[in-house]
Design goal:
Blueprint (H helix, E strand, L loop, with lengths): L21 E7 L3 E6 L10 E4 L2 E4 L5 E3 L12 E4 L2 E2 L2 E2 L2 H12 L13 E7 L5 H14 L4 E6 L28 E7 L4 E7 L2 E2 L5 E3 L3 H12 L9 H11 L6 H10 L17 E5 L9 E4 L8 E4 L5 E7 L2 H7 L14 H10 L6 H5 L2 E4 L8 H10 L10 E3 L6 H9 L3 H7 L1 E2 H17 L5
Parallel strand pairs: 1-9, 9-10, 11-19, 19-20
Antiparallel strand pairs: 1-2, 2-3, 4-5, 4-6, 7-8, 10-21, 11-12, 12-13, 12-14, 15-16, 15-18, 17-18
Length: 451
């Protein structure tokens, strides 16, 4: 594999079993990378969220790589290429460009010397060996990091503060031991992963994956909005509409009731739309308004209508009705779009049935929800209600969302890194990799925590 353009000469490898001076945690998600250095008392504020993509604007013909997207002023008709597909890094040339911009750009606060840095890199569960080998080559041969621990993303949640404990991260001493039992629901961009963790270790026979994530929901919303406005090139705007306007119905009965309320009858049906559910989404024009926003629906105005806005500026208004709750509903009833899969609650039950019944209670009492797709209002309440309806009354069911669901994995890794003895036992040094090769590296990782 060719050397990184950002590396002039190869540096001598650090001695075996020697940790470097600082540790960088890379939660390498499909939509964003959550990255930052571990500190004595880490908090989500120490973590940066970086767009994991290469994007090109069709209007100003500018290409944005990773964190450069923060400087983009016009997201209309933005073409986006992502190095991660279905949770796995499949385009290392693209990922390398994003990493280089993050690690070597003088403007980046994460600029560092990889030779003097330990890297904790997350990956999707059950990653193919070829992709794991590519990751090791990129880390040790291209960027020449001093040490690496490649770990399943869900596992690091065991070191993050428990959402069931008050004031669990209020500045007191960081605990560097994992929570004993945790059932992690990681609703990400590519999929939703169910992972039971015992003392930070995944119980692999019970891990389950629901092939619905933020990307599926955005595409579904885009298809629905296309009925009233051409949105097929507006992935970014559709994602913002999803984030700003969508919510999860409390239960299937309320879902059906809301559908009735937003159904506009025909000539023989006098029903009118309940405007309390519909919102008007003001689309950005990228001149006066950089990001759209939702506001109460005005029934007198139609879709796509330009009218006078604040300051005498025209605006484009898009009514959003049943899309608000039918899009997130896919997470709970995938059969709505013909998918032959259970929803999240059903997938959790599949996971539990792969475990002895004696383990059900500690896991059901510690269901933790993370991931950007879990940020919909009503998500936790609906999941807990759906689980309770499937479980005997004798069981205690507790579902809670992490304080920062997007950065919880990163936070767990940053807290674990404070236990230097544990980290030293988990990492592979560059010297070990160069001496023994990728087969030995894979065998060492295979029996380690989080594999």
């Amino acid at each position: 594999m060719a050397r990184s353009k950002s590396t002039n000469t190869a540096q001598p490898a650090a001695p075996s079993n020697q940790l470097q001076s600082k540790t960088l945690i890379f939660d390498n998600g499909a939509h964003t990378i959550k990255a930052g250095f571990s500190t004595p008392n880490p908090s989500p504020d120490d973590c940066q969220t970086i767009a994991n993509c290469i994007a090109r604007s069709q209007r100003d013909k500018v290409t944005y790589i990773g964190q450069d997207l923060d400087t983009c002023g016009d997201f209309g008709e933005l073409q986006i290429r992502r190095p991660v597909e279905k949770g796995y890094i499949v385009n290392w040339e693209g990922e390398k460009a994003v990493w280089e911009r993050t690690l070597h750009d003088k403007r980046s606060s994460l600029q560092c010397d990889p030779h003097e840095t330990n890297l904790i890199l997350t990956e999707a569960s059950n990653a193919p060996r070829a992709l794991q080998r590519n990751a090791d080559e990129m880390v040790f041969e291209e960027f020449e990091f001093g040490c690496l621990w490649r770990v399943g993303a869900s596992c690091l949640n065991a070191w993050a503060p428990s959402p069931f404990t008050k004031n669990s991260n209020d500045g007191c001493e960081v605990k560097t031991t994992p929570l004993e039992c945790l059932l992690v629901v990681d609703a990400g961009h590519s999929h939703t992963m169910i992972t039971p963790l015992y003392q930070g270790r995944p119980l692999h026979p019970a891990c389950r994956r629901l092939e619905i994530g933020g990307k599926t929901l955005t595409n579904y919303l885009k298809d629905m909005l296309n009925r009233q406005y051409d949105m097929h090139r507006e992935e970014w705007i559709c994602q913002e509409i999803k984030e700003d306007a969508c919510y999860v119905a409390p239960d299937s009965t309320t879902f059906a009731s809301n559908l009735e309320k937003v159904w506009k009858g025909g000539q023989k049906d006098p029903r009118e739309i309940d405007s309390s559910i519909v919102v008007d989404y003001v689309l950005p024009d990228y001149e006066q308004l950089k990001r759209g926003f939702a506001r109460p629906h005005d029934p007198s105005k139609g879709a796509k209508l330009r009218r006078l806005g604040i300051g005498g500026q025209s605006e484009m208004v898009l009514p959003v009705g049943n899309e608000r709750f039918t899009v997130p509903e896919l997470l709970f009833t995938p059969s709505d779009v013909g998918m032959q899969q259970d929803g999240i609650a059903g997938t959790i039950m599949q996971s539990l049935h792969a475990l002895p019944k004696g383990l059900w209670q500690p896991f059901l009492a510690n269901v933790v929800v993370v991931g950007g797709t879990s940020k919909f209002p009503g998500f936790v309440e609906r999941l807990e209600a759906d689980l309770r309806s499937r479980i005997d009354e004798d069981y205690l069911v507790r579902v809670a969302k992490a304080a920062d669901p997007l950065k919880n994995v990163w936070l767990g890794g940053a807290r674990l890194a404070q236990n230097e003895d544990l980290l030293k036992s988990l990492v592979v040094t560059r010297a070990e990799y160069l001496e023994h090769g990728d087969l030995w590296t894979r065998r060492k990782f295979a029996g380690r925590l989080g594999r």
